[in-house]
Specification:
With 240 residues, the chain is mainly α. It is built from eight helices and two strands. The termini are close together.
């Protein structure tokens, strides 16, 4: 990016919103996994453990007090982590979002003004500053190909997170898993009553009965942030 253009504005905005959605994803995925384990519904997350299916999950294998297997330890640690997490999940997830979002948004605005100063010659003429070179990202690596590759890898990881869920693709109703940072597991979207009762609107849309209601489960809402992040990544590719 050699100048601060309309595409440059969109590129900075896509980067900011990508981080916002990815920060939400970290909280949402971790939260719903631990909720599922705590509710005794997370067997798939523990599928790699090598204990027999009919053995107690927290007990060491029989046979004279032998050493606990790696799988049994993993099961026990995950159970303990979920038992600790679930009673505190609201405060922890809200703290995670409150700590992560505002500072990064403020830093992005500060970086925006720094870029503007560089492009207008303020820093470049006095300090030899240039765009595209950072402490962890050299000028040689900052080209269209590498930026597009980075965006593609992030989007691929986002889509893989959604596809690996054991309830994919229907994400059926599960009252045990709640929306991250909230204390309910689903909600329904419906039109206001004045629009639902409008015969003219029904006639225009060709509806014979009632307007459909949209049910959104916790997992659909949690993963919506990931899909938004993938969309912002695609916008990032386009702008690079």
């Amino acid at each position: 990016m050699h100048g601060w253009t309309y595409a440059g504005y969109n590129l900075a905005l896509a980067g900011l919103l990508t981080f916002v959605s990815d920060w939400w994803t970290l909280a949402a995925v971790w939260d719903q996994m631990l909720q599922a384990i705590d509710a005794q519904q997370g067997r798939a997350y523990l599928a790699y453990a090598d204990t027999p299916a009919d053995a107690p999950t927290d007990a060491p294998p029989s046979g004279g007090g032998g050493a606990e297997s790696v799988g049994s330890k993993a099961r026990r640690w995950l159970r303990e982590a979920s038992s600790w997490w679930v009673p505190r999940r609201l405060n922890l997830t809200r703290l995670w979002l409150a700590v992560g979002w505002p500072p990064v948004v403020a830093a992005m605005f500060a970086y925006y003004f720094d870029i503007m100063d560089t492009l207008e010659g303020g820093k470049a003429s006095t300090e030899g500053a240039s765009l595209g070179s950072q402490w962890a990202w050299s000028m040689e690596w900052n080209d269209e190909y590498m930026r597009m590759l980075a965006g593609a890898l992030v989007a691929l990881c986002n889509l893989a997170i959604v596809a690996q869920d054991w309830d994919f693709p229907d994400f059926s109703e599960n009252d045990e898993v709640k929306i991250a940072a909230l204390d309910f597991s689903s909600f329904t979207l419906k039109l206001p009553k004045c629009l639902r009762d409008s015969k003219e609107l029904k006639k225009m849309l060709g509806l014979c009965g009632e307007f459909p209601e949209i049910y959104i489960s916790a997992k659909w809402f949690n993963y919506f942030g990931i899909m938004m992040g993938a969309g912002f990544d695609w916008a990032y590719w386009f702008m690079t």
